[in-house]
Amino acid sequence: MEGRLRFLLSKIVWLALSSSFVYCYDPSPLQDYCVAVDDINGVFVNGKFCKDPKRVTANDFYTSGLNVPGNTSTGPGSTITAVTVERMPGLNTLGVGIARIDFAPGGQVPPHTHPRASEILLVIKGKLFVGFVSSNEYNYTLFTKVLYPGDVFVSPKGLIQFHVNIGKTNAVVIAAAGSQEPGRIVIGDAVFGSNPLIDPNVLAKAFALNLNKVKYLQAVFSSKHNIRDYP
Ligand SMILES: *[C@@H]1O[C@H](CO)[C@@H](O)[C@H](O)[C@H]1NC(C)=O
Ligand SMILES: *[C@@H]1O[C@H](CO)[C@@H](O)[C@H](O)[C@H]1NC(C)=O
């Protein structure tokens, strides 16, 4: 009986902790830093397990390797190398993120949104066509630019955006975001490649397509299963 009680209590504690984890968001960290650790031998602050501040070192705030180009021969001809909290535990709760994006000639980051943060791009190499579309309130207006090295472009949080390498060489972009994990919804993957699939009749009506075209798109997007490969 006592064992069962202990089990239930541990479940309740786990639920309480995991629900506060869900509601943790990063613009207001409430402390200098909360270097992420997986175990509970840390300090519990603001919904996360934080490493004991006395054991934090400079390496918690450091990573390297973004000089190495990503492999662009997969997916849509682009690849993202993101600095995640796993790679840099000190990033946790700080409300910023950064990534390197490599593009093959003709490669693209297909239309996608970042649900949790705006994103700002700095072109290091190449020539890119980038843009985003405003929401219904602003009449779905398309804003685009052709970017060259040194150019900077920002896309507001949550709006559909895309980046295309229109140059003859590889392109390199540094992307920074106002979140340690801005999230990524690739429109084609989410709409035509969801798991399980959305009823094709719904999509046929929604996108003014005949059923066979919807089924074709579902076959393409659900067989890729490379959602995580997509920037
Ligand atoms: C890049 O990815 C492709 C496809 O997965 C693979 O065949 C190739 O070996 C990779 N190239 C490098 C340099 O890792
Ligand atoms: C959107 O379109 C409406 C109707 O034509 C117009 O009144 C409004 O000014 C437009 N708003 C923007 C931000 O373009």
TrEMBL record:
<keyword id="KW-0732">Signal</keyword>
<comment type="similarity">
    <text>Belongs to the germin family.</text>
</comment>
<feature type="signal peptide">
    <location>
        <begin position="1"/>
        <end position="24"/>
    </location>
</feature>
<dbReference type="InterPro" id="IPR011051">
    <property type="entry name" value="RmlC_Cupin_sf"/>
</dbReference>
<dbReference type="Pfam" id="PF00190">
    <property type="entry name" value="Cupin_1"/>
</dbReference>
<dbReference type="InterPro" id="IPR019780">
    <property type="entry name" value="Germin_Mn-BS"/>
</dbReference>
<keyword id="KW-0464">Manganese</keyword>
<comment type="function">
    <text>May play a role in plant defense. Probably has no oxalate oxidase activity even if the active site is conserved.</text>
</comment>
<keyword id="KW-0325">Glycoprotein</keyword>
<keyword id="KW-0479">Metal-binding</keyword>
<keyword id="KW-1015">Disulfide bond</keyword>
<feature type="domain" description="Cupin type-1">
    <location>
        <begin position="64"/>
        <end position="215"/>
    </location>
</feature>
<keyword id="KW-0052">Apoplast</keyword>
<dbReference type="InterPro" id="IPR001929">
    <property type="entry name" value="Germin"/>
</dbReference>
<dbReference type="InterPro" id="IPR006045">
    <property type="entry name" value="Cupin_1"/>
</dbReference>
<keyword id="KW-0964">Secreted</keyword>
<dbReference type="InterPro" id="IPR014710">
    <property type="entry name" value="RmlC-like_jellyroll"/>
</dbReference>
<protein>
    <recommendedName>
        <fullName>Germin-like protein</fullName>
    </recommendedName>
</protein>
